[in-house]
Design goal:
This protein is an alpha+beta fold. The protein is built from six helices and eight strands. The strands form two sheets. The protein has a six-stranded mixed beta sheet, with helices on one face. Strands 4-5 form a two-stranded antiparallel ribbon.
Length: about 160
């Protein structure tokens, strides 16, 4: 099993999206990229910790490649929005890929360049690619939030994207 970490706005929809992808074993909501230890939701929402809301994806590379996950990441949100996604605004909602090692960094950069060259986006992509830091799992009530609350998300679901 391998890990991949993505920030694409509010983690509820991102977690739900990746949990539906065949080959994904687990998707957990959390925080990464900031300077405070063991941050909580209220702290992260202030924007003062510099954490992003992220989803840590555990996947089986024999069933789904990291490159496929990165491509899906670019398709499931608007990577041209700086520090926001839909109605959510703030640095905690930034578009970011936290890479676990040199190979993931290489693939993420390659797929970023492919997304830029695709002609799909009218504005420049602002997604950052950064080395993984400590992943802080979000509070229990944030895990599987979409399913628990029959939620609405500003993200497309995997099933919607796969049917297009």
């Amino acid at each position: 099993m391998e890990k991949a970490t993505f920030g694409a706005g509010c983690f509820w929809g991102v977690e739900h999206f990746f949990a539906e992808v065949p080959g994904v074993i687990d998707a957990a909501s959390g925080y990464e990229g900031g300077h405070a230890d063991n941050p909580n939701y209220r702290q992260v929402c202030t924007g003062t910790t510099n954490h992003a809301e992220v989803v840590e994806v555990t996947f089986d590379p024999a069933k789904v490649s990291y490159a496929t996950l990165v491509d899906l990441f670019f398709k499931m949100h608007d990577p041209t929005q700086m520090n926001r996604q839909g109605p959510d605004v703030g640095t905690q909602y930034r578009s970011v890929i936290f890479t676990h090692g040199a190979e993931q960094a290489r693939v993420a950069k390659e797929r970023l360049e492919a997304a830029k060259a695709s002609g799909r986006y009218a504005r420049p992509i602002v997604t950052s690619i950064e080395p993984a830091q400590t992943f802080w799992k979000a509070e229990d009530y944030h895990q599987d939030y979409f399913e628990k609350n029959h939620g609405h998300s500003c993200h497309v679901t995997y099933k919607e994207l796969a049917s297009q």
